[in-house]
Records
---
Amino acid sequence: MPLRLHVVCKGFVAEIHGVDLSVAPDHRTAGALRDAARSYAVMVLRDQDIDYESFLRFAGMFGTAGRCDDISNLHEDGSIRVPTSLESRQAAGNALWHTDMPMLVAPPLAAMLLAQEIPATGGETQFADLAAALGALAPDMRRRLAKTNAVHELETIRRRMGLTDPGEIRGEYPPAEHPVVCLDPFSGRLSMLFGAHTSYFTGMSPEESSAMLDQLLRHSTQEEFVYTHRWRRYDLLMWNNRRVLHRVLPYGVATDRRRLWRAEVVGGRRPRRWPQSMRELFARF
Ligand code: OGA
Ligand code: MN
């Protein structure tokens, strides 16, 4: 069956129909999926009741399949965790707008979730398009950001979640510094990198940094840049981690089961600045 693409948000989100990932995609299908990932920062494939190997094979079509996890509010024995447990409190960071693992030298290129158990209400995942948000910033602000770096740390998001015990917030990675405006390797377009892990902007005071982060978050998460995904069981959703912020919306963590498989595409290059002149940078919008 040929692959069919249904655009949900222009140039941002597409649903892909006509693909059954339980069988290895042929070259044409794989090529069409990779093409779609260049144009759409979020891709949704419905009804993918597939095994873990097939899920990882899908991740491997876009690069090196990396870390695999379950994202859930459950213990290994399947019972619901108490929300006050350390694991739950650390996982609660997903409720803040973030990019995954920006404290790595090369943050994952993409990540994907495959819904196994979904609460009846709440628990939607939201995505904000930072390429579109960048294009809508005032030219002065874009020019300023194009010369700015930001430092990202795991400890910072944990502190923002209200964790205070040094033993609980300590991250196992050193901080990383990246340009704020960088190239999205999928599309070659410019996007941004900041979020709940961002500790400060290089050369700004803590007050300036915090005001800048607030301003960027407020601007980029306006309704016009945001897609909200209401999960159905067996939805497979992939996002371009170099182009979007994402977060999970509240649900009954203490009472309702929520479990998704998760995989990543790793191994990309470190985030890069637009290598040409500023004039060319602005000619792109
Ligand atoms: C993630 C994440 C959000 C969700 O897995 O990286 O942020 O909706 N998940 O579970
Ligand atoms: Mn995440």
Note: The mean pLDDT is 93.
---
Amino acid sequence: MADTQTTHAPATPPVIRREDYQPPLWLVDHIRLEFDLDAHATRVKARLSVTRAGRHDRPLRLDGDGLVPLSVAVDGKALSPADWRLDDDVLVIALPGNAHEVETEVQIAPATNTQLMGLYASGGLLCTQCEPEGFRRITFFPDRPDVLSRYDVTMRADKATYPVLLANGDPVEQGELPDGRHWARWVDPYPKPSYLFAMVAGDLACNADSFTTMSGRAVRLGIWVREEDLPRTSHAMTALKNSMAWDERVYGREYDLDVFNIVAVSDFNFGAMENKGLNIFNSRYVLADPETATDPDYDAIESVVAHEYFHNWSGDRVTCRDWFQLSLKEGFTVYRDQCFSADMGSAAVKRIEDVRTLRAAQFQEDAGPLAHPVRPESYMEISNFYTATVYNKGAELIRMIALLLGPERFRQGTDLYFERHDGQAVTCEDFVKAMEDGGGIDLGQFRLWYSQAGTPRLTVRQRYDPASGSLSITLRQTVPPTPGQPEKAPMAIPVKFALFDPATGEHGGEELVVLTRDQLEMRREGFAQAPVLSLNRGFAAPVIVEAEQSAQDLAFLAARDDDPFSRYEAMQQLMINGLLAHISGAPLESDVIIDSIRRTITDPTLDRSFVAEAVRLPSEAYLGDQMQVVDPDAIHAARERLMTGIGEALESEWRALHAECARNGFSLSADARAARKLRGVALSYLVASGAPDGAALAFGQFDRADNMTERQAALAILVNRETPERDQALAAFYRRYAGNALVVDKWFQTQALAFHPDTVEIVQALAGHADFTLANPNRARALYSAFAANQWAFNRADGKGYRMVADAIIALDKLNPQTAARLVPPLGRWRRFDGARGAMMRAELERIAATPGLSRDVLEQATKSLA
Ligand code: 0A1
Ligand code: ZN
């Protein structure tokens, strides 16, 4: 039996609607949990102190998922099975009074829990994941975020197998038991919803440290990992301490318990989880050393550690009333972690990366069948709503509020929010209201950002009148229709812009205007010649800008704009325009592009990390997003051609840069990291140039690297080439890192992302590799999510890519519906492709949707994708 607790969908799963929200009828002030832990048979006793909320005569309803009560008692008296019933999975008990002690006992089997929700086993550990609705797989409980309880948890387990026993809050007692067992009791003084419950049992080693808070309290910090991974935890620990200090300095938020623990597990559905005082992490966001982790891995660890830590206030102390409010905690916390990372490194590059992520994930989501507002209106399975829209677009909303308010008033707003709602479960509306009251602003129209889906388009028209020296600018907005929202009202869009004098290269100051209607006309005077418009500076609003700017203006901005995002954007737009024109039949005009790149890579005033971002070609997927109908083959061919052209034209510059950026001895300094990044870009152009020594140079970098950043960069270049070095490097990489799961993931992923005509067959063969398993989400994603993101390979005209991913979804759904459901959206993009591809994608979605016994998760994604 794969999993005794499954969530198979009924014929049509019920739709949960935001407007149907009802406050809880019963509250649980306190819960005492007792675990007798065993991988195959864990006993869970729960004692709930319940109180009736308001005047009603409705029974107590406790959610369960695949649970069978072994016993039920009320106020110390066992109930006979006639006194309770199971309504589907919900335990229903009629209670006479207004306050009772309700006890239940169940048995669960962590070892067969392949969904990784609830209590499950991972590499010899027992651990939990309860968000969003996993607690009901552990015990009967009102498993909704607006029921806040104080938790008192006792764990009993075999001491040799599970020497470490952790839970939320503070450790209060522990002791020995007969038969080699032991116990520990943890109490969390802060009331919390069940989704924040956590416990871990296992043989773990601890990187222990401490942090003294701003009021002088010492907090014990622990990062718990397998003994052999201890040397890889120092970066995460530094990130944690930096996060704690940053939240005090920037938001005035202090940590509130005596201990803060992080545990790394290798089987985890998402990135990490903010359980109160006991964060549980996917090991890929904890473990790093130069030999096994790239610079982007280091950055991801820093930002995920910060994200989960920041949730202690934006999520735990103030939580969500219901799951429609998910962006209340996620949008705000992503914004907080983005600002933290910007402060820890280069703010300019961080913004560029965040916008790239937003465009790649969220803009695509917003343009397809799964588009939904930041605050969704309905769902079948809430796990499907941990999306780029809720997280990343949600963060952009907070960023816009911060921009409109300015730093001081934004801080007054957040202070009021935390003070007003501490200990409560609240809504996005409560957040906006606190920002209005604390910041002194009217966000009336701004609220549409929470309720309207779709990415607004901003079209810009400029008219310069040489006689009067004036420029008129017309901004127009349109918000496209999205599922369930055919008509849209105009949004409040903050637009930052500047007008450059092409003669001096200066502008007369940045302006912020807020577009509130369909159209806005502005006139600016005093220009001896037509100024150059730099628009949506800093990417202040998450919109698509359509401005017809000449190659000359773009080249000017690429060389002169003082807003680094806009400078990057101009450079990218120059490349995009050239490529799109070529794809639609024009000759490839690369001279201006090459000139701009030459100027950028030889500008000594620029940070190398920024240079690397600016001169990199836009991804194939992003180019596809700019087309009416995505033509993956034409995009690939054009992009390769431009890459070769840039490589050839600047071969000596790339060669020089590649040599200059080499370093003796590894360092994590910003300078060294920037050099590694630019070195990788230089190598990619050098190899693309067709230089006869290209493959040998790449292999040399691969072979001699003293760090994973350079080694993987070289491997990622070699896998695209049909050279003997390709196979040599892949074999050497595997030999070197066999047994290190996180690095073997990279080996799978790099091959799935390759620009190689046989990538489909290569991925198919890799699925049969001894190290491949669908049971581990990181491994499954390394192969299939990476492959589905490889536009050219996934959309190969014979449709084999679609079939392979659909097969994987159907197989994975039987084990882990959440992870399977995340593979569906790439197939849902069928409207974006030509008729033949679209029909094949639809056929695969139909095959998935018709599979008997499909989970609610995959069923929702597949049926919505077909609509
Ligand atoms: N709240 C977490 C995200 C998360 C959601 C669900 C999970 O398991 C199914 C795990 C993590 C965060 O934002 O980091
Ligand atoms: Zn989060």
Note: Residues 720 and 755 are 5 Å apart (CA to CA).
---
Amino acid sequence: KKYKIVVTQDLGKDVMPILLDRPDFEVVVWHGTGPCPRSWLLENAVGASGLVVLLGNKMNAETFDTAGPSLKVVSTMSVGYDHVDLDALSQRGIRLGHTPDILTDAVADISVMLALMASRNAKQTAHIVENGEWPTSVWAPYLFCGPQISSSWIKPTPTVGFIGFGRIAQATLSRLIPFGYTHCLYTTNPTSPRDTAFESGILEKHPTLKEVKRVDLYSLAKESDVVFVLAPGGDKTRHIVNETFLKSMKKTAVLVNTSRGTLVDSDALAKALKEGWIWGAGLDVVEGEPNVGADHPLVKEPRCIVLPHIGSATNETRLGMATLTAKNLVAGVLGEDMPAEYKVSK
Ligand code: GLV
Ligand code: GLV
């Protein structure tokens, strides 16, 4: 008997053999241009034992029932699982594989990059050069200035705030310690408190850090010089950054979102930037993506950097994610321990 496996995106020549070389697997791969259409997925899922999917593939009761009782595992090439209906999944006894840890450093890197880009006017000023306007925009004492992300003679103890304080947030904090951060505020991940860090361990790891404190959202907004949004998506975290939150932030503060677009109310953020409630924003994710055009209010904001969800996009990390995805799938189909299973809590 062969297990049918459906793969919604080619995982590359270094990884596909993990699936294709197995004599007990019959592998169906989407090879079309662009993301695999829903209709293709549903047509091919019938009778499948395993699905290899990406963020754009909705994994809900319809998908699972179309596949039928043969479906043992969904393996997503992402750490996030907000595209998966966890209730529908666990009710049917289907297991979920995802890709934690391996992407932590890449996403922490880009989080710091976005904070720096937003604070230092990287978008506007790069455009000036691209447009050939450097010769006419002479170096002047206060031209293109923005708030300094690292500590400075005026502000020796900058404070960083994290909404959600899991693996990626803590890796981002590690990168900020050499910038002079001594104070760290966080709110727990509202969907999964078990992911929350242990403060004592963090202080031992970073001797220059004076304080790591769990606070309510509005204290975090009020006191932070830079806020990183790093909690999972889904209904419970929807628009956690709203008008009230943004109005509470410092006028010189920067907001960075490298988790899911749904956590930030885009209309409120566009207003905050336009009216100067905050200094700038760096977004790797936006509500409604990938339907974010050049006319999107956030894309048009000069101090809002918008990247097309590339947080984990390094060669090393994506290869690791794809490998882990394939290995999760194999173990899930065979009923073995998966290298990275997301266990749905009841
Ligand atoms: C990307 O957003 C992921 O969840 O891995
Ligand atoms: C800037 O380039 C400086 O020399 O201060």
Note: DSSP finds 13 helices and 13 strands in the chain.
